[in-house]
Amino acid sequence: MSGRANITDAHCKVSICVPTFNGSRYLQQAIESARAQTFRDFELLIVDDDSSDDTVAIAEEAARVDSRVRVYRNPRRLGLAGNWNRCLEFASGEWIKFLFQDDLLKPACVERLFKLAASSGATLVACRRDFEFDSNVGEEFKQSFLAYAAENDLNRRFPDHAGTITAGEFAAYAARYPALNCIGEPTATMFRRSAVAEFGNFNADLMQAIDWEYWLRIAVARGMSYLDESLATFRLHDGGATFANMHRPLILDLLIIYHELAYKPYYAAVREAAREAGVDLKQKLFSLCRSAQPRANGTPSTAAVSTQEWNRLVKSYPRLRFPQLNYLMLRSVDKLKSQLKTRTRTTG
Question: Nearest Cα to 285, choosing from 245, 242, 331, 232?
Fold first, then answer.
């Protein structure tokens, strides 16, 4: 653990976590929006991923004037998800409230989400968010992003939710739309710190869907509550992570998500929902693998996945190396299990 400031052993209700990397452009505004919260029982945890600009100086000045601010600096770069997980490691609050270095919270954000969580008993809560585009964002990207956000708005995906989406409802959604984030970015969410012990850390193999895959893990097991009130602002600009990951083949994240849905224990409810809906998650994973694998001569596939990227992926997820063999074997096992179930019911 590296340099830190104003550390106490006292626990608090909410840890507002700000993972930073070269964020001096907007960090001061983010910090002030956190310090202006009407909910006062929080720590403001700023974890810097070895920035080379004035990010740490801005954070340390905030810590100097406000004892609730704690500052950590990683001795080496951990990357996006790695730094988010570092925040989880240092947080002492009962609740985790992320705030990106270039985003903003409205003054009542934490208070309103905390009250929602208390009244609903939810593990994950979220609110509506506004979008702010810098002048350096092209009109084509802006319109494309807004169209995606409107298409995947939670109110549209769950029109009858009345503030609560059950675990079963979310499992059914995940079986049909596993890659479509209808909850939003970390700045618009808050979750119980105890969820980390139950569901683990953020998946560092993902690049763009890190937050969405984590929301899925929680929501398909515990459901979630939603406040249809705009309490946060998600800012898009040419220096943000959304832009930085634009040129990475999205199919890599999709492969990882389908792999987790098909195999991980905490997605058992999604697999059951998929069976009921006639969706074969393993077949979809197999088809994605076929389209993502580089050609025999080592050139990128039609999905623009290079041999280096593919080899890195299958090292972490070896089932993807021989997708057809794994799929056929699993189909045989599933068929055998089904036959045994039928035989047990018949003889029981």
Answer: 331
From 220, 244, 268, the end of a domain falls on: 244
Look at residues 135, 216, 139 and name the one whose alpha carbon lies nearest to residue 183: 216
* Under 8 Å between Cβ of 130 and 112: no
Domain edge (last residue) among 217, 244, 271: 244
Cα Dmax for the chain: 73
Q: With contact defined as beta carbons under 8 Å apart, do 22 and 55 qualify?
A: yes
Q: Both 274 and 141 in a single domain?
A: no
Query: Which of 88, 51, 93, 90 shows the shortest CA–CA distance to 73?
Result: 51
Looking at the structure, do residues 196 and 326 belong to the same domain, yes or no? no
**Which residues constitute the domain of residue 18?**
9-244
Give the CATH number, domain containing residue 26: 3.90.550.10
Q: Does residue 333 carry a pLDDT above 80? A: no
114/167 same-domain check:
yes
What are the tokens at 2? 């590296």
Predicted confidence at residue 344, as pLDDT, reads 67
The verdict on 230 and 280 lying in the same domain is: no
Say if residue 243's pLDDT is above 70.
no
- Are 201 and 273 found together in one domain? no
Specify the number of domains making up the chain.
Answer: 2
Q: Which of 27, 26, 232, 31 is nearest to 130 (CA)?
A: 232
* CA distances for 50 relative to 26, 60, 98, 165, 296, angstroms: 17, 14, 19, 39, 39
Domain co-membership, 219 together with 260 = no
Tell me the CB-side half-sphere exposure of residue 246, using CA atoms within 13 A.
Answer: 12
Higher local confidence (pLDDT), 268 or 289: 268
**pLDDT of 70-120, one tens digit each?**
999 999 999 999 999 999 999 999 999 999 999 999 999 999 999 999 999
pLDDT at 176: 96
Q: Which residue has the tokens 């004037």?
A: 65
pTM here is 0.87
pLDDT classification of 304: cutoffs 50, 70, 90: confident
